[in-house]
Automatic annotation (TrEMBL), chain B:
Keywords: 4Fe-4S, Iron, Iron-sulfur, Metal-binding, Oxidoreductase
Alphabetical list of SUPFAM superfamilies matching this protein: 2Fe-2S ferredoxin-like, HydA/Nqo6-like
Transmembrane residue ranges: none
Pfam families the record matches: Fer2_4, Fer4_Nqo3, NADH-G_4Fe-4S_3, Oxidored_q6
UniProt key word Metal-binding: yes
Every 2Fe-2S ferredoxin-type domain range: 2-80
Start and end residues of each 4Fe-4S His(Cys)3-ligated-type domain: 78-117
Name of the protein: 2Fe-2S iron-sulfur cluster-binding protein
């Protein structure tokens, strides 16, 4: 067995037995000739793998902030009441197991849960009751599950849509026949294509590096791990036009000379697996995948899908590569680009789903088409997932340069006050900034906007984000692992009401240290929102803390400090 | 290999092209502190202590290979502070009770604590309950001290090449776990090697570390001769009022007070320029006058400690936390990882010496209430100075006091730093 098969093999055990037993570990360790602790280390990294028996139905309830605002607590209680199980605990119940999980890409239909990876959306206590009862009498998940499709609420008028225009299989691939890889790269450079996964690195440059690498094997990897809470735009592409993404990968293969492609699909999107597989098959049937593509002798490319297993950090490209290699998804040190040293040391291109789709359209439609859409630096359109306090949550394909105000209007936001741009690792903005334009020149956005109205507690939002980072950090570097935990203590302190303005200054200083010294993007961005919110929502935070000048007295919560003692004495001594 | 030139903090340096920055800096006489970096291992980049800037971009120095024209910053105020902060994070994330640690004096992390001048941590201690795993054949892993540097994971292998250690879990639950089967295959030498490459006291070999601790405390640079002496205090003698000092022991062991008395004859010089007010030394129970300085031993474990501390704050111009217990809880804070109820039951109901069927946990309105955890003094009132050590050396305490009282410049020298 190859190490790269490890995740798949673990899924086989997990799916068949509901958990991964000691025996399974021994068997795998023996086959791979490694120690058992290595397998154990991998299993415990991914939260969808279990080491103890689970029930027939494993329920993963999303605990993102959007879910919290839409009734997470009630739904959670309902699940516990109806099943008799407790969240996060392994119990004797052979039918159900309950776990919380980070955002599952259904923010427009929260609260949502996955039951054996089937989607269940817009949950409320009654619905939970009915689902659990039906499962108990043996109704199948297939008949009960909801449609996870996100509504496409908006496409730009005047034939400007790029992603959701009519699609004909092979239209962009056929274009490559007439062009050399260099010419195609030129087209990408002209439209200024940059990665849509959040880092906005030049796609043309990335592919050029790979093309120029003399690595004997090369890989094209599609990053479909969309884990940033509040984001579900990649899902909409994979659900509506998976073919477009595949075409992008084929073009990348043509340009770089890579012959192997992998789509790393987050396990939360398992329900899209078949669809993507079918799409791949269509390409094979047409001779667009396999050997001698388009009749070109040396043009060979195959794509396989690899399921993740629950770990946000695996969206970071080097962590994703580690994960594909059958390891813990720890981001690598920043020494090489994946195009220099990627999957098993080979030159590797990792791009976001939307990036591939857009690349395919650029080749299909040509540079002229893009020249008048978007702004100087951001050409074309962008998919944005909008959720939260809006009447019309869903997918918005907007022209780059659209203002926040327009978007709020389109999505019918109610009393918007606090907006989270690009998820927890992005940034927050306040009312004063609603005129800002979404584009590289002003406010860059990776693909999600969460809208919160003025009745929401900002502290609750930040607390949810910090919890997320504490759980999803890979744990291998100090500032991110310990620093985020320390900042979480500050939230607890604010909630106790014993913070002063000095604490707020410390939060910003400490956040800066974490972002300065962390190894990967997760730690580098995890504290940004907290610090920003303190500056941008001064009125809110000033009400939460005591203002203090140089020599302020320390607040000490005596009541809390003696609470335990008093209650122990009261309950045991009288 | 080609020689190249590059800059560190503006200074011209030369090295072989592609050489690891840490080594290259060392050759040029510049020390970049590290913990996870280990001679022949691939750079791990996990501890982040060696964070530097390369052409303005931060990166772990151990993961950088020098190249022509690089402009590297190592000791800017921002980086020095970040480095110190990372070490502080390690101290608060684990539970580092140096006075009871086998590795104390030989611990690389402790050494860097001294090196970077950590007297107290700016961060709150997290006091997470962590296990001490003694199940392996030869090795004990004390999770309280592990900083997850990964050295053991990469370096320690059985003769068949199998890993013995690995990370398990993720996020703030990440642990270094042991493969018991593989561990049993380690030879004595291999096991001891594991203990020695661990930069902290996390990996111990059974029966080795107590009998003969790690060695000669290689990081204890101070010895009797080098001890900074306590003198020259008499020059501050005036006809004006003497400076007034108050001292107290809260949740401490009186060890710091014993140490205060340890200046021997120095005490005679001392009382020519200062007088003691409320203090166990004078047995004055209540403040009779406002004091210039208050020395606090011990942290706060009950309501009475809090009252006394607040009284000190009111009656002293300057407050100094003396010793580890005062600074962050110290040994009494070992209980902070255990819920109070369990502590009380263990102490009063289930201990070896308690009566059978004992049900009384002492309580009365006149007895102070036990707090849910031991608090450091600076969590309760403002503390102006911290003197580390368990206990701090006598001369050291009085030198600090002298310099504070008479407003002289003073920075603690490395050999005077001690956490044990
Ligand atoms: C913690 C973390 C999580 C990430 N998650 C994703 C993700 O879910 N999807 C994605 O496409 N990129 C993600 N990225 C960005 C990738 O590292 C990488 O930049 C991207 O896949 C490159 O593709 P692009 O150039 O097409 O954007 C993440 C980065 C970090 C640091
Ligand atoms: S910053 Fe966080 S996620 Fe990234 S390597 Fe460090 S611990 Fe892992
Ligand atoms: S000596 Fe080192 S490992 Fe031991 S407690 Fe102190 S800092 Fe931690
Ligand atoms: S046990 Fe020691 S060597 Fe291993 S990771 Fe922890 S501190 Fe590092």
């Amino acid at each position: 067995m190859k190490r790269s098969r490890l995740l798949t093999r673990l899924w086989e055990f997990q799916n068949k037995f509901g958990f991964i037993s000691d025996n399974a570990i021994s068997e795998i360790a023996q086959k791979l000739r490694v120690s058992k602790i290595e397998i154990e280390g991998v299993i415990s990294f991914y939260h969808f793998f279990h080491r103890q028996p689970t029930g027939k139905y494993i329920i993963y309830l999303n605990n993102s902030i959007i879910s919290e605002h839409k009734g997470f607590e009630l739904v959670k209680t309902a699940f516990e009441k109806e099943t008799g199980c407790t969240f996060g605990k392994y119990c004797d119940n052979t039918l159900f197991s309950l776990f919380e999980t980070s955002c599952i890409g259904l923010s427009d239909q929260e609260p949502a849960a996955l039951i054996n990876f089937h989607p269940f959306t817009n949950l409320n206590p009654e619905k939970v009751k009915s689902i659990v009862q039906k499962l108990k009498i043996g109704v199948s998940l297939e008949t009960l599950q909801n449609n996870p499709t996100s509504k496409i609420q908006y496409i730009p008028p005047g034939n400007k849509t790029i992603f959701f225009r009519d699609y004909f299989l092979g239209n962009s691939i056929k274009k490559i026949l007439k062009h050399s890889p260099e010419e195609l790269l030129g087209t990408l450079f002209k439209t200024n294509l940059e990665g849509h996964g959040g880092a906005f690195f030049s796609t043309g440059l990335k592919w050029k590096y790979c093309k120029e690498s003399n690595s004997t094997k090369k890989y094209i990897i599609c990053n479909a791990d969309e884990g940033e809470p509040g984001t579900f735009k990649d899902k909409s592409l994979l659900n509506n036009v998976p073919e477009l993404v595949i075409e992008g990968m084929i073009i990348a293969s043509y340009i770089t000379g890579a012959s192997k492609g992998i789509i790393y699909l987050r396990a939360e999107y398992t329900y899209l697996f078949k669809k993507i597989k079918n799409a791949i098959q269509k390409f094979k049937n047409k001779g667009y995948l396999g050997n001698e593509i388009l009749g070109m002798k040396d043009f060979k490319f195959n794509i396989k899908i690899q399921l993740g297993a629950g770990a946000y950090v695996c969206g970071a490209e080097t962590a994703l590569i580690e994960s594909l290699e059958g390891k813990r998804g720890e981001p690598r040190i920043r020494k090489y680009f994946p195009t220099e040293y990627g999957y098993f040391g080979n030159s590797t291109v990792v791009n976001n789903v939307e990036t591939f789709a857009k690349a395919a359209r650029i080749i299909e439609l040509g540079t002229d088409f893009f020249s008048n859409i978007g702004t100087q630096k951001s050409k074309g359109t962008k998919l944005i997932s909008i959720s939260g306090d809006v009447a019309k949550p869903g997918i918005y394909e907007i022209e780059w340069g659209t203002t926040i105000k327009e978007l709020l209007h389109l999505s019918q936001a109610t009393a918007p006050y606090y907006l989270q741009i690009s998820g927890p690792s992005g940034e927050c903005i306040n009312e004063m900034e609603f005129d800002r334009k979404i584009c590289k020149e002003d406010l860059i956005c990776g693909g999600s906007i969460m809208v919160f109205n003025r009745y929401r507690s900002i502290l609750q939002i930040i607390e949810n984000f910090m919890k997320f980072f504490n759980e999803e950090s890979c744990g291998s570097c100090t500032p991110c692992r310990a620093g985020n935990q320390i900042l979480y203590e500050k939230i607890k302190k604010i909630k106790k009401g014993i913070c002063t303005s000095k604490d707020l200054e410390e939060i910003k200083e400490w956040g800066k240290i974490v972002s300065l010294t962390s190894r990967c993007g997760l730690g580098q961005t995890s504290t940004k929102t907290f610090s920003m919110a303190i500056d941008k929502f001064k009125d809110y935070f000033n009400l939460k803390v005591k203002t203090c000048t140089d020599n302020c007295s320390i607040e000490f919560d005596m009541e809390e400090a003696v609470y335990d003692y008093d209650s122990i004495i009261k309950t045991t001594q009288f | 290999m080609k020689n190249i030139s590059f800059k560190i903090d503006g200074r011209n340096c030369t090295a072989e092209q592609g050489q690891n920055l840490i080594e290259a800096a060392k050759q040029n006489g510049i020390f970049i502190p590290t913990l996870c970096h280990f001679k022949h291992l691939n750079p791990l980049g996990s501890c982040r202590v060696c964070t530097v800037k390369n052409n303005g971009r931060t990166i772990a120095g151990c993961t950088l290979n020098v190249d022509e024209g690089m402009d590297i910053e190592v000791n800017t105020p921002e980086l020095l502070d970040a480095r110190k902060a990372i070490l502080e994070m390690m101290f608060v994330e684990g539970n580092h009770f140096c006075p009871s640690c086998e590795k104390s004096g030989d611990c690389q992390m402790q050494n860097l604590g001294y090196e970077t001048g950590i007297r107290y941590t700016r961060f709150p201690h997290l006091f997470v309950d962590r296990i001490v795993d003694a199940r392996p054949e030869r090795i004990v892993v004390n999770q309280n001290r592990c900083i997850k540097c990964k050295r053991c994971i990469e370096e320690v292998r059985t003769t068949d090449g199998n890993r013995v250690f690995n990370f398990t879990n993720r996020g703030n639950k990440t642990l270094v776990s042991i493969d018991y089967e593989q561990e049993a295959k380690l030879s004595d030498t291999q096991a001891e090697h594991a203990m020695h490459i661990c930069p902290t006291g996390s990996i111990l070999v059974k029966g080795k570390s107590f009998g003969k601790p790690f060695g000669n405390r290689e990081f204890d640079y101070s010895n009797k001769e080098k001890n900074i002496s306590f003198n020259e205090i008499k020059k501050h003698k005036t006809t004006h009022k003497k400076k007034r000092i108050a001292t107290t022991s809260l949740a401490g062991c009186f060890g710091c007070h014993m140490s205060m008395l340890d200046v021997d004859l120095g005490i005679l010089d001392l009382i020519e320029v200062v007088e003691f007010n409320k203090s166990p030394i004078t047995d004055i129970k209540n403040f009779t006058e406002h004091c210039d300085i208050g020395l606090i031993e011990g942290g706060c474990c009950n309501t009475h400690n809090i009252e006394v501390l607040r009284e000190f704050r009111k009656n002293c111009d300057i407050l100094v936390s003396v010793g580890e217990c005062a600074i962050w809880g110290g040994l009494p804070a070992i209980r902070n990882t255990v819920p109070l109820e369990e502590c009380l039951k263990e102490a009063y109901l289930n201990s070896m010496t308690s009566e059978e069927n004992e049900i009384i946990i002492p309580n009365h309105e006149d007895i102070p209430k036990i707090l849910n955890k031991v608090y450091s003094n600076h969590e309760v009132v403002k503390i102006d100075y911290h003197i580390p050590g368990c206990p701090p050396n006598a001369n050291h305490i009085w030198n600090v006091v002298k310099h504070i009282l008479f407003e002289e410049e003073y920075s603690i020298a490395y050999p005077e730093f001690k956490y044990d």
